[in-house]
Amino acid sequence: MKMFPTVLFLAIAFALAPASAADKMKHNHGVSDTPQKGHGMSGHDKKMQAYTGEVPHNLDTGSRRFTDHGMFSVDIASRLDPVAINKMHSWVLRVRSKDGKPIDGAKIVIDGGMPQHGHGLPTKPRVTEALGDGKYLVEGMRFSMNGWWEVKFDIDSGHHKDSVTFNLVLK
């Protein structure tokens, strides 16, 4: 009978204690409700959700595409070929209007991450120089592991705003 108060105390303490990190991860499958510093989807105000399946067999990994609402045609080219894991490198982003005219003076926000892992980019790439003719130098790009990566660009030309996502599968 002397153990009953101790057991009761432990049961109440356990019930009132905050959930451990392991318990929280078990309930939300490791996806944080708030962006982690340096790993969030801040440029798109979206949460990166872990996609646990295989890389889609029809994943478009092309380097040219139209933005989500067709406002711009966008090309990307890495200055590091092939793109290597854990190496800082830069890209050239070219933005044109839907009828092919270069878009200079745009504000561009870069974000991305790994859909299968639910985390963002390990660095904060940004446009460091306008190269003219609708081209922009993007520096600070680095990928920390093999797999499927998304790189997202929010483009604001002053007249139109639109977004585009490029997929890379690094091996």
How are the secondary structure elements laid out?
Blueprint: H1 3-16, H2 21-28, E1 64-66, E2 72-78, E3 89-97, E4 107-114, E5 119-120, E6 126-132, E7 135-141, E8 147-156, E9 161-170
Antiparallel strand pairs: 1-2, 2-3, 3-7, 4-5, 4-8, 6-7, 8-9
Question: How do you describe this structure in short?
Answer:
With 171 residues, the protein is mainly β. It has helices spanning 3-16, 21-28; strands spanning 64-66, 72-78, 89-97, 107-114, 119-120, 126-132, 135-141, 147-156, 161-170.
Shape: globular
- CATH architecture assignment name: Sandwich
Helix content: 10-25%
| Residue-averaged pLDDT | 79
Distance between the termini: 63 Å
| Percentage of residues in DSSP E strands | 35-45%
The number of strands is 9
Q: Tell me the domain tally.
A: 1
Question: Helical stretch count?
Answer: 2
What does this structure look like?
This protein has 171 residues and is mainly β. Helix content is 13%, strand content 37%. It has helices at residues 3-16, 21-28, and strands at residues 64-66, 72-78, 89-97, 107-114, 119-120, 126-132, 135-141, 147-156, 161-170. The strands form two sheets. It has a five-stranded antiparallel sheet with strand order 1-2-3-7-6, with no helix packed on it. The relative contact order is 0.19. Residues 3-47 have low confidence and may be disordered.
Descriptors:
single chain; 171 residues; mainly beta; Immunoglobulin-like; 4-stranded antiparallel β-sheet; 2 helices; 37% strand
